[in-house]
Specification:
The protein is an alpha/beta fold. Helix content is about 45%, strand content about 15%. The radius of gyration is 18 Å and the shape is globular. The structure holds D-glutamic acid (DGL). D-glutamic acid (DGL) binds near residues 16, 43 and 121. D-glutamic acid binds near residues 16, 44, 76 and 185.
């Protein structure tokens, strides 16, 4: 039987899911959290569905072996490829991510919006269905964020080359008169500072991080899995590869105690 004092599992192909972890621990301070970065296999974006399903199955088996009571797939690409499979294979709840096309389309005045995501996310059924459903009345411009995951994983967010690269990626979208840019990959919120320099002031960046944390709270509540005991939570991080960047980011985003281990 699942108990509500078991940890929440969260994973990504690398450090992107830390954007979700940071808000999660703020919003649910009683919860212990186990994070898995599949850094040895990053990026997931260009991989095919079957490969991603095989990779995430290993990650989920690991998180379940650590007694996670629910798992956040803090990766749009992994959600696109594998969420249906995971929900059918395992008994615990899974919370997934998808690009927030709906609020962008509903609030657009120029009737032109853009989504930045990986190839894998754009190829997914979830994205196709959501955009068909919610973006009927707007022009939907899509852009594969080539190299962006790599830039974040290499700790190069503030390098001058990143800003100039982002300009080449984003300028064609600005020319389409967009007023919303949807971040469809959990690595991209790390680039918000640079994106704000590149985008005109009228373009709103849609970051779905808070929405997924809210959804997690809702799902845990629904399954009676919220931890109501006030005991000191623990935060463990596992990486299948190199974890220097993970530690560097953690030092910047939290003052909580945590443990990092390579597996
Ligand atoms: N953070 C993942 C996502 O949200 C990155 C994808 C990748 O590894 O290419 O899609």
């Amino acid at each position: 039987m699942i108990r509500n004092n078991q940890p929440i599992g969260i994973f990504d192909s690398g450090v992107g899911g830390l954007t979700v972890w940071k808000e999660l621990v703020k919003s649910l301070p009683n919860e212990s959290v186990i994070y898995y970065a599949d850094s040895a296999n990053c990026p997931y974006g260009p991989k095919d569905k079957e490969t991603i399903i095989n990779l995430v199955t290993k990650v989920v088996d690991f998180l379940i072996s650590k007694e996670c009571k629910a798992i956040i797939v803090a990766c749009n690409t992994a959600t696109a490829a594998a969420i249906d499979f995971l929900r059918s294979k395992y008994d615990i709840p899974f919370i997934g991510m998808e690009p927030a096309v709906k609020p962008a389309a509903q609030n657009s005045k120029t009737k032109s919006i853009a989504v930045l995501a990986t190839e894998g996310t754009f190829n997914g059924k979830l994205y196709t269905e959501t955009s068909r459903k919610y973006a009927k009345d707007v022009v939907l411009n899509i852009k594969v964020g080539d190299k962006l995951v790599d830039i974040v994983e290499k700790g190069m967010v503030n390098a001058p080359s990143t800003e100039s690269y982002l300009r080449t990626l984003i300028n064609p979208l600005i020319d389409k008169n967009i007023d919303h840019l949807v971040l469809g990959c959990t690595h991209y919120p790390f680039l918000i500072g640079v994106l704000e320099k590149v985008l005109p002031i009228n373009v709103k960046i849609i970051d779905p991080t808070l929405a997924i944390v809210k959804q997690t709270k809702r799902v845990l509540g629904q399954f009676d899995l919220l931890n109501l005991q006030k005991i000191e939570p623990f935060y463990n991080f596992y990486s299948s590869g190199e974890f220097t960047i993970l530690e560097n980011i953690l030092r910047k985003i939290t003052n909580k105690n945590y443990r990092v281990e390579q597996v």
